[in-house]
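Cross-check.
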Amino acid sequence: MTADKPLKIKPPKTLGACIDTLYAWERERAEVAQRAEALKVREALLETHILNTFSKADLEGAAGKIAKINVLRPVVPQVEGDGKGWSKLYAYIVRTKAFDLLQKRLSTSAVRERWEAGKTVPGVTKFTAVTLSVTKR
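Predicted model, tokenized:
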């Protein structure tokens, strides 16, 4: 489904039938997601086994009959875990105005906590998102 080619369905005729169909589809999707999660766990276990095997054999890649793998070792940033890492990073960001080091995303729960305490957050407005909550009767 894309913006230029929306998914076409023929909705049921009544609102009640639409609600029941939506509930059934959500349950179906949840079952598929649960199965997908189980498959993901299975994959992760085998991947761990393969990585452990590679570590011991000092290999960079290998192949089966239908697939091959390469061991990738990208260097990724990690804040120091000594309890002071975040403080040092924030001080550096403020001092150098290097705000691009952080992702631009609000923490909904943190903003809500402040609003519930009667505080305002400068530059942040309230937006009411409209969603559906479908539950079994």
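The chain has two domains: 1-74, 77-125. Helices lie at 15-57, 85-96, 108-116. Passed to J.P. for a second look.
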